[in-house]
Amino acid sequence: MKHRLNTDKKDFAFTLVELLVVTATVGILAALLLPAISQSKARAQRTQCANNVRQLGVALQGFLADNHVYPLSVENPSVGADWRDALQKQEVSPIKTGSIAWMQQGVWKCPSAEEPTDWPANSVYLSYGYDSDGMSHPDDTNSLGLGGHHTFTASQLPTPAVMESEVVSPSEMLAIGDGFWGENNDIYDGSGYLWRGRTIAGLPTTKRSYARHQGKANAVFCDGHVESPTLQFLFADTSDAALSRWNRDHQPHREKLSP
């Protein structure tokens, strides 16, 4: 006897409730995954930034080996030469475009730093800054940083250069890092300075600064090692350990703090 196979197919369909459950489950999984993906991307960018400042530190060490002085923050204002030009000659980055565009490419650009849409049209948004001034305030005439013994004024250039031997504790002296400056946790970004001082105009960009590396900044020190101190430690902490890292004599110079 031949048995006839039942070829009838049962229709399957999702009910509205089942569709809603599936949609909700996918939404929950996406909500759980997106922060992890975002954090992973931020970590990768922070690591790339740290590698950038490490390479800038290598260039700085090369400049020191050749000259035994730190590059001036301003060499010749009429042609715009400064510490970046000095380090560029160490071939830390092969980008040479004949314009200031190289300051925003390669190792000179933090991958987390995007130029804001409201940034002044006649200003260059810079990723990295040089500790050229150290702790300072408007009426200073002498710098405690690396960019020369004098502060820059219309009548006085920041010269002479700082000798390599004048940095008392190279492993504790900030050299180059994310381009932040400010004081009392009022922080500004997009600057060619890594500076703790109170000569500030305009509104602080503290929120944007904190968002770049989740409240931290990458910096290379004068001995070439890289750290990621918190912005609070850099711009609000008034301990000797925090303040002395800005100055080549390794003193806190608390007298330069805002009242």
Pairing-aware structural class of the strands and helices? alpha+beta
N- and C-termini, Cα separation: 105 Å
| DSSP summary, beta strand count | 10
Strand share of the residues? 5-15%
Order of helices and strands: HEEHEEEEEEHEEHH
Helical percentage: 25-40%
What's the structural domain tally?
1
Number of alpha- plus pi-helical segments: 5
Shape: elongated
Low-confidence stretches: none
Radius of gyration computed on alpha carbons: 26 Å
* Biggest beta sheet summary: 4 strands, antiparallel
> Please, what is the average pLDDT?
84
Features:
single chain; 259 residues; alpha+beta; 4-stranded mixed β-sheet
List the helices and strands and how they pair.
Blueprint: H1 16-67, E1 74-76, E2 81-82, H2 83-88, E3 128-130, E4 135-136, E5 174-178, E6 181-183, E7 186-188, E8 195-197, H3 206-212, E9 219-221, E10 226-227, H4 231-235, H5 240-243
Parallel strand pairs: 4-8, 6-8
Antiparallel strand pairs: 1-2, 3-5, 5-9, 6-7, 9-10
